[in-house]
Amino acid sequence: MNLKKYIRDIPDFPKPGILFKDITPLLHHPQAFAYSIDQIVQQYSNTPLDYVCGIESRGFIFASTIAYKLNLGFIPIRKVGKLPGKTQSIQYQLEYGTDELQIHEDALQNNDKVLLVDDLLATGGTMYGACQLVESLGAQIQGCAFLVELAFLSGKEKLKKWPTFSLIEFS
Amino acid sequence: MNLKKYIRDIPDFPKPGILFKDITPLLHHPQAFAYSIDQIVQQYSNTPLDYVCGIESRGFIFASTIAYKLNLGFIPIRKVGKLPGKTQSIQYQLEYGTDELQIHEDALQNNDKVLLVDDLLATGGTMYGACQLVESLGAQIQGCAFLVELAFLSGKEKLKKWPTFSLIEFS
Predict the structure, then answer these.
(1) pLDDT category of residue B94 using cuts at 50, 70 and 90
(2) pTM surpassing 0.95?
(3) Can you give the residue range of the structural domain that contains A164?
(4) How far apart are CA B129 and CA B139, in angstroms?
(5) How many structural domains are present in chain A?
(6) Contact present, B51 and B108 (Cβ < 8 Å)
(7) B interface test, pick of A61, A70, A86, A113 with most B CB neighbours within 10 Å
(8) Mean per-residue pLDDT over chain A, rounded
């Protein structure tokens, strides 16, 4: 299935000069959405896993569905101030300035095996921060999965410590 | 399955005096999460539906998984400024002040049949706004589904124009 035809380019979003890859047509199309989930799930069907972590907000769409399909629990990694319990935080670098992600302290224990999921791999900064959060709780990262990878931004290089998979690659 | 034991009370979140219902233990538990999804899906297995709309952010977790399981497309309803294409907007009332939701203009057409999903029904203001957005595009609302309902806040009364279902009720 040619998934690229369900991703549309939106120029100058969120800022002038940026060509945004909009995945909403893929989500909108039942077969394209289901096929995407099934392909990512198949990638991890033989990997020992305890939890799937999703990164707010679009990451939740894929991570929760993959968790359901793999019969695993789902753990949200959220923007600062959104999680109600005791959290671990990490600041990470953006193109301009920094941002912060949080995870519940009690969400993971030593040696829990984790798959992290987000919709898009660009420079890898967000996923790098999420991986550091997961490892700070003693868990083992078994994989980082993305629907879309912008390969020209070299995010895989930044994430080279961990096994990374992306379903749709733009070069 | 007694799902209430997977929902924990967090006092004074997000503000002093509010007792927050934290659903992350339910998401964390594979059987509780899967059972919740399956129970909501079963509720709509005989309802004619074209799309499932999820409300950012926690609504995405349930709406996307329910869409996948029902072989339907998923449509995100997001906070202002997050959707990259042309949008319809709606302002809705909060306890103090207003907030705004958006949907892509081309996400729905006349007479499309829609299920809206969110994690929590409190006063119903957010879902009421989302329903108005969906109807502004000419679509038909076949149901509003929630994981948790705080029945003492009378959200169902506010949503009485549409068929509403909640899996876990706190009275």
Answers:
(1) confident
(2) yes
(3) 47-170
(4) 14
(5) 1
(6) yes
(7) A61
(8) 97
Contact between B84 and A27 using a beta-carbon 8 Å cutoff: no
Taking the Cβ of residue B83 and every Cβ of chain A, the question of whether any pair is shorter than 8 Å is answered with yes
Structural domain contains residue A143: yes
With contacts defined as CB-CB under 8 Å, which chain B residues touch A24? 75-76, 83-85, 104, 107
Q: What CATH number has the domain bearing residue A145? A: 3.40.50.2020
The verdict on a CB contact (< 8 Å) between A27 and B74 is yes
Beta bridge partners of A78: A102
pLDDT, residue A94, reads 79
Residues of A whose CB is below 8 A from B28? 51, 73-75, 107
Q: How far apart are CA A59 and CA A20, in angstroms?
A: 16
Residue A98 lies in a domain: yes
The H-or-E segment that residue A34 falls in is helix A30-43
Looking at chain B, the whole-number percentage of residues with pLDDT higher than 70 is 100
Confidence of residue B97 (pLDDT cuts 50, 70, 90): confident
Q: Is B160 part of any domain?
A: yes
The interface predicted TM-score of the complex, written ipTM, equals 0.98
Within an 8 Å CB–CB cutoff, is residue B109 touching chain A? no
CA–CA gap between residue B117 and residue B23 (Å, rounded): 15
Contact residues on chain A for B107, CB-CB shorter than 8 A: 24, 28
Residue B19 lies in a domain: no
Return the residue of A nearest to B68 by Cα.
Answer: A34
Given a contact cutoff of 8 angstroms between Cβ atoms, the answer to whether B54 and B64 are in contact is yes
